[in-house]
Specification:
Blueprint lengths: L13 E4 L3 E2 L6 H19 L4 E8 L3 H9 L4 H19 L6 E4 L3 H16 L4 E10 L4 E2 L6 E2 L5 E2 L8 E10 L5 H10 L4 E2 L1 H12 L5 E2 L1 E2 L7 E2 L2 E6 L1 H5 L2 H4 L7 H7 L4 E5 L3 H15 L7 E4 L2 E3 L2 E2 L10 H20 L6 E2 L2 H31 L11 H22 L3 H22 L1 H4 L5 H25 L4 H10 L2 H5 L37
Bound molecules: 5'-O-[(L-methionyl)-sulphamoyl]adenosine.
């Protein structure tokens, strides 16, 4: 669980971030994976009626972006403007992300504060001039240690993440004495044991810091696409130490103290496991050097893989999110990636798998359930929700299981076990379906007696009320489906907006009242086209 600190402002927002994405190529489902996860977590907190801030954006400086622009014969600024507008911002709409802000590192609000931040660190005596000589991977934008490289063809050394040759650079640069921070970082991991999660990531980071840190080159002098160093404008800042600062500059660091205090520290930085060290080692050390609080947690998600390898642009295995959303819709897309892959582990995507999950859990599961309940209320009760009447053990169980599902899912979300939260909700949907199969309301309907009709009312009320709980629980993951279900149940007119329903109270049974108007509506999850 991200640990709030006693120094947090009392009304501090829950603040979650994604990495900011390199604008070298269009987005892939690998990039969108972190975005969707962050979005679901943000929406979960909002649904718990917590003030929430969700930030994402783009990382636009450095050699990698500069080279992509050159390959396309345009300036880096033209290139980044084009990719942000045509690809990266639209991707957020494709996956239905509800980010509160979008930061670009080329914006003055960021660049100026980066200069201020490093001036502060320099004034604290934590910058020195030196020379860097060693391997550098432009794809990672990372100075590499010789020991971590792979042997390639000839005498080439390869980056273990990209499997591509590293470049040897020799430059006069400015340095940050990262090696001095080992002890303080280890203390941080000790004091806040969930600072790095999951545990496998934590262990990796602790071992890395224990093995001894090298000082970090913080500027580059052989090209100029970056934020110029204020005390020597023939240098630009190293792209990572510019990029990491987005998390602070976008919420008022150095420009709006009140806003900064009401948002910072970040509760969770979600990152892919390939960029863990930057976030769990360099970033907190930078903040310590500047006297700024460190974030509460860095959580590393796994990779989407193809044939066991990280899906990536460089290996031409990238799939664009639209390709998947066009067939399955954004809700099923979100549900699939968050439920089918254990959050924190790698997962392999396949069209067969997403189709199977869609059909079994969404179309035949939740979709069919909602359609059965609303059509029976339509047929037998002229669309009016019947009175709950006298409940029996089965209804009481359905009610207590809803409360338990809310508690289990919420506890899983505290640990960022998104897949467990969704697993609990899915089991509950299956449970409601099982309840209907056991009770056979279509048989009970044949009994015209007053008692028979009352029993039929009790069953359909219970199923609709259980679905009310599901609509709230699924709102963070499948916002469109939940909104449609809310309408179908006639919940809006009785209970108000879905967004105003406190998720943690969703297990309180009996919120829908008799008389609500149910509507069958369109299927929540239409059958897939044959060629899907
Ligand atoms: N620009 C840096 C991050 C700076 S944050 C201050 C960066 N950008 S990236 O575009 O290369 O990657 C962004 C995120 O996408 C990373 O978290 C990375 O792990 C994630 N993914 C890219 N491909 C991925 C998969 N195949 N699977 C899961 N996530 C992957 O790194």
């Amino acid at each position: 669980m991200p640990q709030p600190s006693p120094t947090d402002a009392p009304d501090k927002a829950f603040y979650i971030t994604t990495p900011i994405y390199y604008v070298t190529a269009p987005p892939s489902i690998g990039n969108a994976y972190t975005t969707v996860a962050a979005d679901m977590i943000a929406r979960w907190h909002r649904q718990c009626q917590q003030r929430t801030w969700f930030l994402t954006g783009t990382d636009e400086h450095g050699q990698k972006v500069m080279r992509a622009a050159a390959e396309h014969g345009v300036t880096p600024q033209e290139w980044t403007d084009r990719l942000v507008e045509e690809e990266w911002q639209p991707m957020l709409r494709v996956v239905d992300a509800s980010n509160d802000d979008f930061v670009r590192t080329t914006e003055p609000r960021h660049a100026e504060r980066v200069r201020d931040f490093w001036e502060t660190i320099r004034a604290n005596g934590e910058v020195y001039a030196g020379e860097y000589e060693g391997p550098y991977c432009v794809d990672c934008e990372e100075f590499k240690l010789p020991g971590e490289l792979l042997d390639g063809p000839g005498d080439k050394q390869l980056c273990p993440i990209h499997n591509r040759p590293v470049e040897n650079i020799k430059e006069k640069n400015y340095f940050f004495p990262l090696s001095k921070y080992s002890e303080r970082l280890l203390e941080l991991y000790e004091r806040n044991p969930t600072f790095v999660q999951p545990d496998s990531a934590r262990n990796e980071v602790v071992a890395f810091v224990r093995s001894g840190l090298q000082d970090l080159s913080i500027s580059r002098s052989s090209f100029d696409w970056g934020i110029s160093v204020p005390w020597n404008d023939s240098h630009v800042f190293y792209v990572w130490i510019d990029a990491l600062l987005n998390y602070a500059t976008a919420v008022g660091y150095g420009s709006d103290d009140e806003r900064f205090a009401a948002t910072w520290p970040a509760d969770v930085h979600l990152v892919g496991k390939d960029i863990l060290r930057f976030h769990a080692v360099i970033w907190p050390a930078m903040l310590m050097a500047a006297g700024v609080d460190v974030p509460h947690q860095v959580f590393a998600n796994g990779w989407l893989t193809v044939g066991g390898q990280k899906m990536s642009k460089s290996t031409a295995t990238a799939i664009h999110p639209s390709e998947v959303v066009d067939t399955f819709g954004s809700d099923a897309y979100r549900y699939y990636f968050l439920k089918a892959i254990a959050f924190g582990s790698d997962g392999s995507f396949s069209w067969e798998h997403i189709s199977a999950v869609y059909t079994a859990e969404l179309a035949n599961g939740l979709g069919n359930l909602a359609s059965r309940v609303t059509s029976m209320v339509g047929r037998y009760f002229d669309r009016r929700l019947p009175d709950p009447g006298e409940t029996g053990l089965d209804e009481d169980m359905l009610a207590s299981e809803l409360a338990r599902t809310v508690a289990v899912a919420d506890a899983a979300m505290e640990r960022l076990a998104l897949h467990e939260a969704l697993g609990a909700i899915e089991s509950y949907v299956a449970r409601i379906n099982g309840y209907l199969s056991d009770q056979e309301p279509w048989q009970v309907a044949k009994d015209d007696s007053e008692q028979g009709q009352a029993r039929l009312g009790t069953i359909l009320y219970a199923a609709a009320e259980a679905l009310r709980g599901v609509a709230v629980l699924h709102a963070p993951t499948m916002p469109k489906t939940s909104a449609a279900l809310w309408e179908m149940l006639g919940a809006q007119e009785q209970l108000g907006d879905l967004g105003d329903q406190d998720l943690r109270s969703a297990g309180r049974w009996g919120q829908l009242s008799a008389g609500a108007t149910l509507t069958k509506g369109e299927p929540l999850f239409p059958r897939l086209p044959d060629d899907a």
